[in-house]
Amino acid sequence: ESSLKVTGIDFLKSQNTRQHHTDGYNIKNLVVRRGHPFQVKVSLSRELRAADKLSLRFGIGENPVKNRGSLLSLKPEREDFNGWKISVVKKEGKECLLSVISSPNAPVGKYNLHVKTGTNIYKPENGVIYLLFNPWCEDDVVYLANEAQRKEYVLNDTGYIYVGSSWSIYDRPWNYGQFEEFVLDACMYLLEKSKLSLTDRRDPANVSRAMSALVNANDDNGVLLGSWSGNYISGTSPMDWIGSVTILQQYYKTKKPVRYGQCWVFAGVLNTVMRCLGVPSRCVSTFNAAHDTEENLRVDVYLNEKGEKLNSLSFDSVWNFHVWNDVWMKRTDLPEGFDGWQAIDATPQEQSQGLFQCGPCPVKAVRAGDVYLPYDGKFVYAEVNADQVYWLVKKVNGKEKYFKLGAEIKDIGQNISTKAVGQNRREDITREYKYPEGSKEERMSMQRAYSFIRPVGMGPRSGYASTVQGPSGNTQPLVLRDPVTKTGLHLEITNTEALHPGNPLEMAITVKTSTPGNWTVDLIGSCQLQYYTGKVQANLGTIKETIKLEGTSEMQIPLKIAPDAYMKTLSSMDGEVLILVTAIAEVKETNDKLTKETSMRFEYPPITVQMPETAKLYNDFTCSFIFKNKLNVALENCKLLVEGLGLFKMTTFDQGDIMPGRIMKSEIVCTPTRLGEKKIVAKLISNQIKGISAEKAITVT
User: Fold this and answer.
1) 98, 114: one domain
2) What parts of the chain have a pLDDT lower than 50?
3) Active site (annotated) includes residue 263
4) Looking at the structure, do residues 289 and 204 belong to the same domain, yes or no?
């Protein structure tokens, strides 16, 4: 009697990957999602008989063993093993078609498939199967019911990250590229590096927490090294990335941290990793995000007598924007009511359980003030809900003293934004994180949060706290809203001309009063250049005026900065640079004080992308990039970075210096290798401008 041997196995890749929504992955191996059936065709030395013993063995990890659950031995039609099952679909001569269903809570990762017949074991080449989370499967905790959302949050490999300031939000195109070569392998390498147990790999909450730690290089030699120094000679400036692909490919090749990242880069890469593993994920930008509030829900901002913001005294800060991620899942480890979006953050800011990791924190818990829930609820709550208090620092008899300014509280956590589902526009999701300002629910949520967070006294937190004017030791929650002044004093800051680098910066501060009476207002205004982290890099100029207003009236005071006052600093700064204007007004008759600040960004001429609207698979076409320097200054060391997923690899053109009025044109030949809508992203950087982006889509048929 000849013993039964396996002569071959067909993983039916094109049919399986189509059904599992994994046909995009650029990899030889079979990629499937847990909880859904896939088929394999086994070729045998003779036909299969009732008495034959045939089993499929799936092993995960270094030394798979049955009793640890890392080796699954599946026999057709037998009771399932750890929630897995196989069955014979049909037998045809020496061929046997088998259907395999993995458990909807199986550990994700790479499984080695061997086929055992009697005492023979067959090991196929490319026999490693990648098993991912499955948002299409109702029994998987990452199940997402809406198909359009699954397309966006799992399958879309391009998107936008929203940056700038709440005063001028703009979109930065980002290529996630979760299907590109080596990206899935990089994610599997991170899973192995995380040392998560097999049980932990079943749960997206544990996996997403581990990935938030591994995407930054702190603690574990993870993917990206963060730097906010302004000097990026020994790596790539965070401004110069246009997607995650190059970063993850380089990391996978070298196994060393890639230099350098800032918050939107960390979020872009973490979004790629989570989508790649099959967890629905989105990048979330918060404008005016509070950092390092020492869990007292307050950020202190110090101004000198010219109205200029001081860096040196503040440990805490308000970032113009901060980007993290939301991932979608049921939280089986929490009481009911906290399923859905969970915030995770890979930017290394504060340690959580000894590592730079953050989340998953239920977005519903942030909204309800349930900040005690795992993980890192207090930190995320403070980022979007802290209060901002302004202090005036004055020298009195040679000593610095602090005076609290009746601050117009700039609400922290504004315009919380993500890309809309299926559309290229910004969606405001602030309401998912916060109840409407001033509503009964908001007050209750705040009281709840405050009962878990112990606010400390009211003094400014710096080395000179002993000289504070005013109460201290006051543990009452500080809830400041726009003060209603006796004069109805109000400040507005605007730019009166477009803010083009090389032109004068022309801005204005409008002072308004709205109650009867004659008012004398002392106005101080300052203009500074700052990084998006709120760190001031240069003082550009100040104004000081005393104006008289009567009843309901207003006056506009111009603030103008000449090009030579800022161009040199701008060229030497590498990063997301904003123009910060701060105003302090004091009414002499009533002693009312008011502070207002606004961050604005520079405006740049556009890049034009020219190409056909449609293309045929594997038929080359040309794409050109045209840029005219409409500014009054030469742009030095220009580089054009372009990438088109499924069309061409990331390419850099060195353009040298582009003089005012000159036109730059570059061309690239594209070869479409994938069907559907594909995007080309371009970015121009130079000493003077830190990134003009453009993108264009083409349909490949």
Assistant:
1) yes
2) 457-459, 461-483
3) yes
4) yes
